[in-house]
Design goal:
single chain; 7 helices; five-stranded mixed sheet; alpha+beta
Length: 201
């Protein structure tokens, strides 16, 4: 029986889920069949194809990981995020699917930390669609804000300062980073390629 799913589209989605490095190998197939596709419309042949394709993609990535350097682009990015956190800036990986989702995740983290009493000065994040693009071409866009301080009149200036600090840290980590200085525009980080090791099988 012919497949009812679109093989090329589904293969690309599998590739993105596997190579982003955030998901366990065992989760890839069901994420495709239960979330990306409509499970009620899939045939047994569709499910078998997804399972085989997911296993093939996971095996290819595990083989590639064995040749990667000890420190990858993701590790260097996480070091930048860790430094930001130490400077009272919320830094989140894969925060929601959109900018709006990402800001929601930031607000949740800010509330959990104690709001203004936490001393948090701002935030930096990228969302799932940004991650998909980074997996494809190695370019990552970072959203940021300094609007989490009490002094309303200083929020724009604080956002500018945080933007420049993020750019400085990215460049120190060896990435090309570009930002116009406009607080309404995101920072573009040229990672070269996206390499993040997947969770242990």
């Amino acid at each position: 029986m012919a497949l009812t799913l679109d093989p090329e589209d589904t293969r690309q989605r599998i590739h993105g889920l596997v190579w982003c490095g955030f998901h366990a190998d065992a989760d890839i197939a069901w994420m495709i069949t239960d979330e990306h596709l409509d499970p009620d419309e899939l045939t047994p042949e569709d499910r078998a194809w997804v399972k085989a394709e997911a296993a093939r993609a996971c095996a290819a990535k595990r083989a590639a990981e064995a040749e990667w350097p000890a420190e990858t682009e993701y590790d260097r990015l996480e070091a930048v995020f860790a430094q930001l956190r130490s400077e009272k800036v919320i830094a989140l990986h894969r925060a929601g699917n959109t900018l709006s989702d990402g800001h929601d995740d930031v607000r949740e983290a800010w509330r959990a930390a104690g709001r203004l009493a936490s001393g948090i000065r701002g935030c930096c994040f990228y969302h799932a669609q940004d991650l998909d693009a980074a997996v494809r071409d190695g370019r990552l866009y970072l959203a940021f804000s300094g609007g989490m301080i009490a002094e309303v009149e200083r929020r724009d200036a604080n956002t500018v300062a945080i933007g420049h600090r993020i750019v400085e840290l990215l460049r120190t980590a060896g990435f090309e980073a570009r930002w116009s200085g406009d607080i309404n525009e995101r920072i573009e980080a040229e990672l070269g390629q996206w390499r993040k090791r997947s969770p242990p099988a």
